[in-house]
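To whoever picks this up:

The parser on our side crashed when reading a file containing two proteins. I've narrowed it down to the boundary between the first structure block and the second sequence. Both blocks are reproduced below exactly, byte for byte. First block:
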Amino acid sequence: MQIAVMGAGAVGCYFGAMLARAGHRVTLIGRSQHVEAIRQHGLLLEHRDFKDHVRVAATTDAIGVVEADVVLFCVKSADTEAAGRLIAPHLKQGAVVLCLQNGVDNAERLQATIDQIAVPAIVYVAAEMAGPGHVKHHGRGELIIGASPSSASIAATFTQAGVPTTVSDKVANELWLKLITNCAYNALSAVAQMPYGRLFKVDGVTEVVRAVVRECTEVASALDIAVPENIDETVLALAGSMPNQYSSTAQDLARGKKTEIDYLNGYVVRKGEELSIPTPANRALLVMVKLLEEKTQQAI
């Protein structure tokens, strides 16, 4: 299978590397510093279980998607439409674009810019870019993808490559489960610049997480999204499975980059306003991250 990764950061590089190791032809489309390092030395994958230099193609140009059967769409949520317009002229007929992004409405927004099928996906992996062309894996590494004519074959291919992938016909519910988890962890990890495991050593964090989850659940229910009854326990358990992981929001702030908080806690706040559902815990986390963004931008 020929695969392209649009927006090859930590998530895209991890899955691209795993698929390339299994013999698939992978092209990474990313920032120049990573592309240059990958071209010279290959992509360094520091997996929890092994370390490998993986040979992949790399470019900064969206034309890199031109021959792809599957595109892993990994750009930031704010860049969805712009990146969609960049790849649209180069996508071949029959290509499938998997949206491996935070938030719940990216596939819908992307679909408005391309003719090919945009399939929502839920990502569960702990990874970071540890340097140019160097992706470090901290845990997990599975995907849940929405139903489409090609989803079953894609899932089988990815699973054989060491990327456990399942197909869900209730992908909206899965997206909200991931959104709620992100709302609970991302801002707290970012504000404290701490990994998930250490957060819960501080008194009060568990109660804040429960408040965030409760608000998200109320908004989801008003939108007819089914949320598991044990969602509190599911969300809290993540810290045990990824104790050393810093949230993507924390990583963005540490690098002076704009975060996706508007598409996480900010999305819940906006929907809450539309539905007249109070979301004070989510709003507080949103504002704290926005303040840190402002401080970071002023420093730059």
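<<boundary where parser fails>>
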Amino acid sequence: MATMADVARSAGVSVATVSHVLNDTRPVLPHTRQAVLDAVEELGYTPNTLARSLVTSRTRSIGLAVSAISNPYFTEILQGVEASALEHGYSLLIADPHDDPRHEGKVVRLLHERRVDGMIVAPSAEPRDLVAYLARHRVPAVFLDRIVGEAEAGDASRFDQVCAESAEPTTRLVDHLAGLGHRRIALVAGRPGLSTTRERITGYRHGLAAAGLPYDERLLVHGDSEAAGGERATAELLSLAVPPTALVTANNAMTIGALRALRERGLSVPGDLALCCFDDFAWADLFSPRLTAVAQPSRDIGAQAVRLLLDRLAVPNRPVRTVRLPCAFVHRTSCGCPEQASRLSEHVSGPPGHASGRPGGAHAKANERTLP
């Protein structure tokens, strides 16, 4: 097996110069750099990552802690994180906290013990211990998907965060259903305590208010962000003396649960109940009817999280940033619209009626806020 000394001899340079080229620790003349890289290629030299980490105090690895990795939304985020990490020469260590604060603490400690250079975490609904641990140990970290405020954890203001817009796209769904004449519009909301849940409830209520519809607390049921919870919540809504005529589900898992509850009762979409959902997914277009949905820029969220983390590693004292990415309203037929009227995707980054009309939204400019 070739050594660094072999590379140095082949390239006609010192071992120190080879080290500077491979580790980017000092500028090297272009022709010298190329000679070293050619020698590395010719000899098949593989750097000793462990030895290098002992010298540089960097492992060039990132810890990723996200729950429900089997969920297509988080799977796409993972793909965005992995692609961006590899592009910048970082490996990825992945753990699933299962949305359990105690398990979250364990996996974050394990990732820290593996000496990752930084972490990307989708926080649980009770993030105070997580934030305290990361702050106490000065672990560079980025929170994704769920925003953590000072009310949930006082030290959260020292961490960068990235997520999709949640309130305005939910308002857009309610606005659309109200525009179709629905007056009893229900929401199956996510797990209490998550910022995504709070924001989508806020968007739901804003949509009702904008349409001149009263808020009825019986029409808002939590499905805990899971398929079984979505099924239970939908069954509860359908059992009301006056059930809703339209339903908004606040994530893709709960959408599956809602469809199961409707099927078990022999009800059809949109004939018996109009349906719009937050989270588009690969097979949403294959359902009959096709699902009208809000599509989140999941891969971009993952890639943006890596960029924020690498910026933090490069400049530890830079101002803290919170980045929100716009979503897209994907108009199909589960809302009750005819097929010919539903072939539309609108970029959603503002109040109803202000969509840009651009398809997708995954590559739209983020709304970035810098904190002091």
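After patching the parser it read the second block fine. The mean pLDDT is 87. The radius of gyration is 24 Å.
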